[in-house]
Design a protein that fits this description.
Layout: H1 4-69, H2 75-86, H3 89-109, H4 115-204, H5 218-223
Helix pairs in contact: 1-2, 1-4, 3-4
Length: about 230
């Protein structure tokens, strides 16, 4: 006949091992799920970053050109920016059309060689250039704002991603901690139960229950449910 004490100890230890394995599996599943969540968060952030990258790049370029045009990058950069506008197709087309209109009007009124006509022609090009500089600065400002908004969007996405990943790391830590506590409790309960049985055996060892002929042994005392007092 199997020893009941050995059977009880074996059952308690087996139960603790099962609880231990269950806790490990549960923690492993939670950690794996958190890992998938972290990877997905990173993937989504990289996707947002890639989508907004052209707008951020355009904003950086526009800001650089805007600073040059406004003289914030030095006189040489400003002169180069203005020269680029003056040598552009838009300036050429506007000045050609405007000068032709001035000459045609002067020819129709008989003042082709008059001082007013020459003054108008002399003032026309600088006026067109000044207008185009202001227009270009405003256009660049729009692109700068667009890039700024895109950069803010990337920053917000990064902050949200960081917060979500931090929460998932916290869940992983909680899973590991919970598994460790569950394992400790499982084996602690086994040891506590064995200690209780051992204390009972020591308490009733040598005690002779009513109607018995022999005193209890230590192992018998562990299972004796009455009291000698």
């Amino acid at each position: 006949m199997p020893n009941p004490i050995v059977a009880m100890i074996g059952g308690s230890v087996g139960s603790a091992i099962i609880q231990n394995n269950t806790a490990k599996k549960a923690a492993g599943a939670q950690i794996a799920a958190a890992d998938k969540g972290i990877a997905e968060q990173q993937r989504q952030f990289e996707r947002v970053q890639k989508l907004l990258e052209p707008y951020v790049g355009a904003g950086k370029t526009a800001l650089s050109q805007q600073m040059a045009l406004g003289g914030m990058s030095g006189p040489e950069e400003q002169q180069a920016a203005i020269a680029a506008i003056e040598g552009g197709q838009e300036f050429e087309a506007l000045t050609r059309q405007g000068e032709e209109a001035i000459l045609q009007n002067a020819s129709a009124t008989g003042g082709l060689r008059g001082g007013n006509t020459q003054g108008a022609l002399a003032q026309f090009r600088p006026q067109v250039l000044s207008s185009l500089i202001n227009q270009q600065y405003t256009r660049l400002g729009g692109l700068t704002t667009l890039g700024q908004n895109a950069a803010v969007g990337v920053g917000n996405a990064g902050m949200q991603t960081g917060q979500n990943i931090s929460n998932l790391y916290g869940q992983q830590g909680a899973a590991v901690s919970g598994a460790a506590m569950a394992q400790g409790n499982a084996f602690g309960n086994v040891l506590g139960g064995l200690g209780t049985l051992a204390g009972r055996g020591m308490a009733y060892e040598g005690f002779t229950p009513q109607g018995a002929t022999n005193p209890l042994t230590f192992s018998q005392g562990m299972f004796y449910g009455g009291s000698k007092f």
